[in-house]
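Problem 12. The chain below contains 551 residues. Write out its predicted structure in token notation.
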Amino acid sequence: MPGVFSFRPRLLESLRDYSQARFVADLLAGLTVGVVALPLAIGLGIASGVTPGAGIFTAIIGGFMVSAFGGSRVQIGGPAGAFVGLVYAIIAQYGLPNLLVCTAMAGVFLFILGAARLGTMIKYIPHPVTTGFTCGIAVTIVLSQVKDFLGLELGVVPAEFFEKIPALVRALPAASGPTVAVGVGAFLLIRFWPVRWGRVVPGSIVAIIVGTVVVHFLKLPVATIGSRFGAGGFPDGLPSFSPLVIDWHRLGELIRPAFAITLLGAIESLLSAVVSDGMIDDRHDSNQELMAQGIANFTVPFFGGIPVTGVIARTATNVRSGGRSPVAGMTHAVALVLVVLVAAPLASHIPLTVLGGVLIVVAINMGDWGEFRILRRHTKSDAAVFLVTFVLTVVFDLTVAVEIGMILAAGLFIKRVTDTTHVSALDEAGAPGQGHEPVPPLPPGVLVYRVFGALLFGAADKLDNVLRRAGGDTRVIILHVAAVTALDATALNALETLHAKLRHHKKYLILCGPHTQPYVLLERSGFLERVGADNVAADLEAAVARARQLV
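Solution.
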């Protein structure tokens, strides 16, 4: 029933007619996705300013929960490239303990959104805003990998854009030749790895194996996970539970970054679910998906994890590998656990420049770069929203970009609605107005105005023109509002003002043809009662007849 809380993961539905053949298919798909997810989880953890273990644990715990409790049959959850810049900035400004608190808060927000059945609200975020911050995030990922990809001696890379760029430029002359060679080789190998081979062995895994072997046996001076993070850089066991450290005095400051994680996580996961729907001819439950994302994001911080969301690349890999139920996503998490328990000693030798190459490829693939080529075809307002969101994401952060982008998009939307709302005088001589229904002969002192479109706060001032034309000879104004599709409180107040001023000068207002939403609002507010039942007409002919009585 609508409006009633419902918690029903797709896993329950998928297991009804589950078979051994489907289990084998899901098992193989899960193992394949686990192989693909391994380098991404490591690289995204490092790029976000945390340890490789944090990325791995996020993929294991978050990935398992998203599949077990989610509203999609094939969604794969884990750390995402979209979060890199945001997580790095939050750590730089608030510290790691507060990032974990922000992630848990975002989990609560996401669950509330899903429980309140607001999953479909995400579709109201304009396309220029989503593509703008997606391209901006891709640039942010690339910038975050420049240090490790080139082997720069830079220490901690500044989080602020205007500090980061000069710091990287100053460090460029000291770039490490062996590091650049290994990184570029890994990038080219991944970029041009044949698609048909990638379905069996992903190019990223091949690049990591080859890069690790080359650096280890040739004794190249290239930074690795072990040299950067020490012996404990890569986990060799399962994560342990650790309570959050909450600074109650700063909790209010964390609402904005927590909201940014919430918004980005919701957008990314639901976009991924929509894409996967098209691949398997299915329809996900967006509200259940948000609740699953909420559970995952609330849980992972207690094990040192970072924000979780559904990721398109790993979800698409799952579908192409034959996964058709949440069991595949749960298997991918188990596969990562086995890697942690078995391959931890070897993982410490992975070169950071290779992981940088992996993430640069991810960034190139995630950016919707075609938007720049077709900007001329867009309206100026849409192009402006896209460019502003893109620049703000790169220069400042995602929170500012989405806030400003949404405000700008909302303002331009209001302007468009306002431009489509018209208040025009119908032919006073009694002839049919152009494109309108015939107007009966009007007695002297009667004016008829037709209002067309949504009469909202951006267009309410157009009613002022009606009052200006109501000269001394005018006794009755008929507002033909049958074509008004929506009415809000500001427009209602404008109608109240118009009616009051007409009454003050012993003149009358007649409403003609109000229906649906406008009629309900006018009735509930008591406006129809104040105007008088006799002064509300069903059509123009009845309105003119009433006007003859009044004059």
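Discussion. Confidence is low (pLDDT under 50) at residues 428-435. Students who got a different answer should revisit the alignment rule from Section 12.3.
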